[in-house]
Amino acid sequence: MTEKRPLPGFKDGAPPDRYCDLVLTGGVTSAIAYPGVIFGLGQVYRFNSIGGSSSGAGSAALAAAAEYRRRHGSSEGFRVMLQRTAQV
Question: What pTM was computed for the model?
Fold first, then answer.
């Protein structure tokens, strides 16, 4: 049995003028890696244009929801995204 490590806290260090666009492709491996990458990038960039294809579209939707929540006052969406995808 593997021991689960606690998830890291999200530190929103992204300046209001530093943006990053995301284009996420499909593929099982990509879909597994994307939440962690989005979590890391979200700490230093704000996402502007987000899109994806196939399984990357699901990760793009999660990233868009987390960014929407950040723009409305809470960066908790990134931590919730990572938590939900870690449960699978």
Answer: 0.84
How far the first Cα of the chain sits from its last, in Å, is: 16
Q: How many CB atoms lie within 10 A of CB 65?
A: 15
Q: Which two tokens stand for residue 80?
A: 């919730």
> pLDDT tens, 32-86?
889 999 999 999 999 999 999 998 999 999 999 999 999 999 989 999 988 888 7
Question: Any residues with CB less than 8 A from the CB of 70 and at least 6 apart, and which?
Answer: 12, 42, 46, 77, 78
Residue partners of 59: CB distance under 8 A and separation at least 6: 24, 30, 31, 34, 35, 38, 52
Q: How many residues does the chain have?
A: 88
In 3D space, the residue among 34, 39, 50 whose CA is nearest the CA of residue 75 turns out to be 39
